[in-house]
Amino acid sequence: MHRLKLSRKRIKILIGISIIVVLVIAVVLYGSWMDFQTHYLEVMKDLNSSETKAYMHDRINGTYNFLELLNWTSQNLNWSKESFTRYSKPQQILNQGKGKCGEFAIVYVAACLALGYDARIVASRQFYLAFVHGFHAWAEVKLDGVWTHVDPSPTAFWNDTSRYRSWDWGPICTLNVFAFEDGKIEDVTSRYR
């Protein structure tokens, strides 16, 4: 009888600990989602600001279409595998002159917006990567009322979402893809799986 009481007490303790662990994980993941969401909404707010548009317009110094802006982005940024300071403002990124997918997407979208095109950042998210802003980032531009895929890094791709289907994103059930506009988020996962 005594052993049975100890076992029940241990089970209650284990259940209590399990509940606490699940709650802590839920809070961390929710906080991570909020950080991810806030990060890209703030980036898009900055890219849509009159200051950033004016800076980019002066920096571009010409008129380009969407495809030409892919080349412009590649000419002004170098892909880097090394560690470097990650910036989210196009001025800082262009001054540094290097980046990864996020920096290329930011500069490309900023260039599009500065020239009056509709553009937004798209980022994939693995729910278990709690402290990462995204797994990969790219852009979409609106052509004839339809959002079209554009990946400016490291080799530019235009309207070819099939390339992502061959990547090892990890467990597919954990992958979500979101498009960020100024103040809006859209789940676009179905277009990229």
Question: How would you describe this structure to a colleague?
Answer:
The chain has 193 residues and is α+β, with helices and mostly antiparallel strands. It has one domain: Transglutaminase-like (Coagulation Factor XIII, Chain A, domain 2, Alpha-Beta Complex), CATH 3.90.260. Helix content is 50%, strand content 20%. The chain has 7 helices and 8 strands. The strands form 2 sheets. Strands 6-5-4-3-7-8 form a 6-stranded antiparallel beta sheet. Strand 4 and strand 5 form a beta hairpin. The model has no long low-confidence stretch (mean pLDDT 82).
Observed structural traits:
single chain; 193 residues; alpha+beta; Coagulation Factor XIII, Chain A, domain 2; 6-stranded antiparallel beta sheet; two-stranded parallel sheet; 7 helices; 8 strands; elongated
Provide the fold topology.
Elements: H1 2-47, H2 50-60, H3 66-76, E1 78-79, H4 90-96, E2 98-99, H5 101-114, E3 119-126, E4 137-143, E5 146-151, E6 157-158, H6 162-165, E7 175-181, E8 184-187, H7 189-192
Parallel strand pairs: 1-2
Antiparallel strand pairs: 3-4, 3-7, 4-5, 5-6, 7-8
